[in-house]
Amino acid sequence: MNGQNRKDILPSMTVDIVLKKDQRTGKLTRGIVKDILTKSATHPHGIKVRLTDGQIGRVQEIHSK
Q: What's the predicted TM-score (pTM) here?
């Protein structure tokens, strides 16, 4: 499942995000969602989240519901 819809993402889910510094390479970082930062219902590049370790990026793939 992609991360373009805010309704699909909840805190404590495991997701893959792309960090700002990795946008050119597309390298993914896996983590657990702490906060959802995007306010709109959808975003074409992925919903922006903060992981439990403090990293911020846009969700590319959701691994758990």
A: 0.92
